[in-house]
Design a protein that fits this description.
- It is a single chain.
- The chain has 23 helices and seven strands.
- The protein is mostly helical.
- It has a domain at 3-88 and 239-335.
- A five-stranded parallel sheet has the order 3-5-2-6-7. Strands 1-4 form a two-stranded parallel ribbon.
- Helix 1 crosses helix 16 (311-322) and helix 4 (62-70) packs across helix 14.
- The radius of gyration is 23 Å and the shape is globular.
- Residues 3-59, 297-307, 386-404, 458-462 and 472-492 have low confidence and may be disordered.
- This is Sulfotransferase domain-containing protein.
- Residues 125-365 form the Sulfotransferase domain.
Length: 499
């Protein structure tokens, strides 16, 4: 990744999003805001701004636009890019080659050493995402475990592209990650005392859901600075995830407007999706099927959209798009986001099947027994799989009242708020739009059940959960649990397992 170009992409992406009025409520760090302000001043009178505003005024409503994209969804540029990535030979590397190529140790050790080295590994694991897919519920459940403690807040946002200090944390050539500098700053977001108390065996975690989406900027800094880290992902039907994202965003904007004593009508859901798709079109990621007028052809020629993007160009276009505040449609393209993480793990010699686990929200909220057993499997893998030993004071099983807290929380998740209902027409179009991406997700994970076929909103009582690596059956008195994988060594999946 060329981070100099990415900085420009971040500015352009944020500016384009503001021009499209796709984002009304967004927080960025002061350094990034300065960059964005400068970019706005430089670009606000350029053809891209004029063309973008003209597109919004062409009278095409959100539902019409969405329908035009659905017919092209199976052959969109970003989908073809994903197919090529899946077809490519898997590039495997080694820990030493990865460290030498991408990680500047700054005179320190890559892996903490010494008798209590494991206590210095904060975070021990990360919940990468996806946003609005149940990460808050999962977070609340994990912290019930007596050996797991969170960071100072659920989402540290440390590696977010709008907050990550590229100048401070990357070398002169924007290629090597400054490992010790990141550790010094990042570890300040964790509670050191419980981690360092001898014999208590605490482990910590970060649950920033944007890290799944921002694989292009976050994966390398995370894996260079925390090569031991385990990764946990929770997903849900992408249509439901997008609908939840919209309602959450709308609620936040409404609260902010009430605080500021303003009252601007928030977009309809269809308009919200329309703005996202228009932005993705500008970067050449998706296409629409409706015929173009001469004026529209002229407008497109003056935008960031390129006639044809090679793989490197497509990766940069994706980076520009995901640098916007929401990236709501792209967050549900799980296959692309996971591919980025898989590639980085393989480059450093780690098998994704050992380093990463994926679960579905639908399984956790649809079956109490499954939810309880999945939580047990998750915590066993996160805390005990080659990590902290019992001699360090770790309790192998949480107390019974703690063990059931996850199920109780998921019941609260289901019933606490009466949520708006998405229209069947819009749902059907979005399901069709996401279908080819879900099919490729099934291909990546080698399990057709990840396709989220129409009507599959959850599992019935007694059915197996959909987890990755693929389960061999629910745990039952000593049998391998749903996360058992025959290639697993039962030892730590990080490259620092010997410490």
């Amino acid at each position: 990744m060329d981070y100099r170009n990415l900085r420009l992409a971040i500015c352009l992406g944020t500016v384009a999003a503001s021009l499209l009025a796709a984002v009304q409520f967004c927080f960025v760090s002061t350094p990034t805001k300065v960059l964005v302000d400068k970019a706005v001043s430089a670009i606000k009178s350029t053809p891209i701004a004029t063309a973008t505003e003209a597109t919004l005024k062409n009278g095409e409503d959100g539902a019409q636009l969405l329908a035009s994209y659905v017919s092209q969804s199976k052959s969109s540029p970003i989908l073809e890019y994903i197919r090529r990535q899946l077809d490519d030979e898997k590039e495997n590397g080694t820990a030493s080659s990865y460290q030498n190529s991408y990680c500047d140790l700054q005179g320190g050790d890559w892996c903490p050493t010494g008798k209590d080295a494991w206590q210095q590994k904060a975070p021990a694991f990360m919940v990468l995402g996806a946003k609005k897919a149940g990460t808050t519920s999962l977070f609340a459940s994990l912290v019930q475990h007596p050996q797991i403690i969170p960071a100072v807040r659920k989402e540290t946002l440390f590696f977010s592209p709008r907050r990550f200090n590229f100048t401070r944390y990357l070398g002169e050539d924007d290629k090597k990650v400054k490992v010790q500098t990141i550790r010094q700053d990042y570890l300040s977001l964790f509670r050191p005392d419980p981690l360092q108390r001898k014999g208590e065996g605490k482990v910590s975690f970060d649950a920033t859901p944007g890290n799944l989406l921002h694989w292009d900027t976050a994966a390398r800094p995370i894996l260079c600075s925390c090569p031991w880290v385990k990764l946990l992902v929770i997903v849900r039907n992408p249509t439901d995830r997008l609908w939840s994202n919209y309602n959450f965003h709308k609620e936040q904007v409404t609260k902010q407007e009430a605080k500021n004593d303003t009252n601007n009508n928030f977009y309809s859901f269809e308009e919200y999706v329309r703005n996202e798709l228009l932005l993705m079109t500008r970067y050449g990621l998706v296409e629409k099927s409706s015929p173009r007028t001469q004026q529209q052809e002229q407008e497109q020629s003056t935008t960031t959209r390129l006639p044809s993007l090679d793989d490197a160009g497509m990766a940069k276009a994706w980076s520009a798009y995901t640098a916007t505040c929401q990236s709501a449609v792209g967050r549900g393209m799980y296959v692309l986001n996971l591919l980025g993480w898989f590639k980085q793990l393989r480059l450093m010699g780690r098998d994704p099947k050992d380093a990463l686990r994926i679960v579905r929200l639908e399984d956790l909220k649809g079956n109490d027994k499954v939810a309880s057993q999945l939580l047990e499997e998750v915590t066993d893998w996160l805390v005990f799989d080659g990590g902290v030993a019992a001699s360090d004071g770790v309790t192998k099983q949480p107390p019974k009242n703690k063990k059931r807290s996850f199920v109780h929380f998921m019941e609260t998740y289901k019933h606490s708020v009466k949520k708006p209902v998405l229209s069947e027409t819009t749902r059907s179009m979005l399901d069709e739009f996401y279908a080819p991406y879900n099919d490729l997700l099934s291909r990546l994970l080698e399990d057709e059940r990840w396709s989220y076929r129409r009507g599959e909103q959850g599992k019935q009582q007694g059915e197996e959960p959909v987890v990755w690596p693929r389960n061999l059956g629910i745990r039952n008195d000593g049998d391998e649990g749903p996360f058992y994988h025959p290639t697993s060594s039962g030892q730590s999946t990080g490259i620092c397992s010997s410490t």
